[in-house]
From TrEMBL:
Keyword Ribosomal protein: no
Reactions catalysed, as given in the entry: Hydrolysis of alkylated DNA, releasing 3-methyladenine, 3-methylguanine, 7-methylguanine and 7-methyladenine
Species for this entry: Anabaena subtropica FACHB-260
EC number: 3.2.2.21
UniProt-listed SUPFAM superfamilies: DNA-glycosylase (SSF48150)
Pfam families named in the record: HhH-GPD
Family matches, as Gene3D superfamilies: 1.10.1670.40, Hypothetical protein, domain 2
Enzyme class: hydrolase
Name of the protein described by the UniProt record: DNA-3-methyladenine glycosylase II
Keyword Repeat: no
Residue ranges occupied by any HhH-GPD domain in the UniProt entry: 60-212
Keywords from the UniProt entry: DNA damage, DNA repair
Amino acid sequence: MNPRFIQISELELLTPVSFNHALIVLANLDSDLARVLETLGTPPLWKREAGFPTLVQIILEQQVSLAAAKAVFNRLLEIVKPLTPENFLQFDDEQFRLIGFSRQKSLYCRGLANAIVSNQLDLTKLPTMDENAIRTQLKRIKGIGDWTVDIYLLMALQHRDAFPKGDLGLLIAAQQVKGLATRPTPVQLEAIAQNWRPWRAVAARILWHYYLNNHGKAVTVYQ
């Protein structure tokens, strides 16, 4: 069997039970994360439904506040009913501009929709593929890079070790939680996060939990 297309083990995915277990493991591994949990309590699991709408929403979240992206996404849901690739392609860029899409994001989402409609991308197969294969499949689409893939892996596919090292909210939170003199680079944050394997997706939720409680609505960054 091709190892790139094996069913992901249940043990590699987050469930409410494994999430709670991971919180205990991380608190024992890292006193800084333990302090966040003690102060703020358990973070949300933050799960999204896998599929085209979630990928569109993540693209909208690139380089803008979550609140701004959510407002545009909600307006999109009002005009494209239901939000499928086929229905999305029935609307033109001017209609999307009027609800808040940039020209670039219209291009990216249109490219994603076309790839699905033309069978170049089958999102239903992603849960049966390993992370590298998923990354390769999604990054073929213009406008989808590592950050977008990581967020999809973490929130939609619930991979337990997905880690969007280029996320601005995580970088800011890590600096403050760890008491660092300067904000870490994505490479430096990735090095810090090695200690959190194989539960980096849970560590990310703890850091976001801290960020949202101290800085309001998170700003995400596309790397």
